[in-house]
Each structure stands twice: as C-alpha cells, then as structure tokens.
Amino acid sequence: QVQVMESGGGLVQPGGSLRLSCTTTGSIANINAMGWFRQAPGKQRELVASITRTGIKNYADSVKGRFDISRDNGKNTVFLQMNGLKPGDTAVYYCNVDRIFGDDLWGRGTLVTVSS
Q1: Greatest Cα-to-Cα distance within the chain, rounded to the nearest angstrom
Q2: Secondary structure (DSSP) of 75-113
Q3: Under a CB-based contact definition with an 8 Å cutoff, are residues 78 and 36 in contact?
Q4: Tens-digit pLDDT profile for the chain (116 aa)?
C-alpha cells in the first residue's frame, strides 16, 4: 500500500526556520514531480514549491529566496527547508507526488504555525 507522510511541522517564531520532510512507502512508479502545497484557514490550497525528477525547481513568488526544496530520487523523498518564516506562512503543508500515469498522491499534511 502506497503512503505519503509529512513530518517536521510545528510552532516557530517569526524569522525562524523549519525543515519539512516527505517520505513515501510502497512502490511508486512513474514519478514526475514532487512538491509541497499549503492551505491556510479560509483559503484555497496553493503550490509552495515543486521539483521534477531532473531537479528543476519551481517556487511560489511569496517564498522565493526563503524556501528551498530538495529531493532524493532514490528514496522518493522530498524536503522543504523554510527560512525567514512569516506569520503568513502559517498553514497546513501537504506533500504531493505527481505521477506521469495515475492520480496524484497526497499526504495528510503537517501544521506549520508561525507566531510569537
């Protein structure tokens, strides 16, 4: 059974850092990109960052220069290093696995709260 699991969320003060990890279990074939989305209360889910199998990265404008996404293709794992966190980054962060064939896979999310 394939599972996608996020970890690393928590409470952090403005200006602080967190590192999110997304691991997968089970056999997942044809992975194209892996990425992170987030959803704040009362808002739609939005793309934060993504990375293709060949390492091409894409970031939302709001996180450029502060967040860095990386990936271990061999382990189907993706990370999100978040620096300079702001209260506006508060959200549930979801890991996404985009497959060439088949539906996307999603984790259950990890909560990031930025507050003093």
Answers
A1: 44
A2: GTEEEEEE-S--GGG-EEEEEEEEESSS--EE---EEEE
A3: yes
A4: 789 999 999 999 999 999 999 999 887 778 889 999 999 999 999 999 999 999 999 999 999 999 999 998 888 899 999 999 999 999 999 999 999 888 899 999 999 999 99
Residue 104, CA distances (Å) to 30, 44, 79, 82, 88 in order? 11, 18, 18, 24, 27
Alpha-carbon distances, residue 46 vs 26, 27, 42 (angstroms): 27, 27, 12
Per the listing, tokens 């896979």 go with 105
Beta strands 110-114 and 67-72 are unpaired
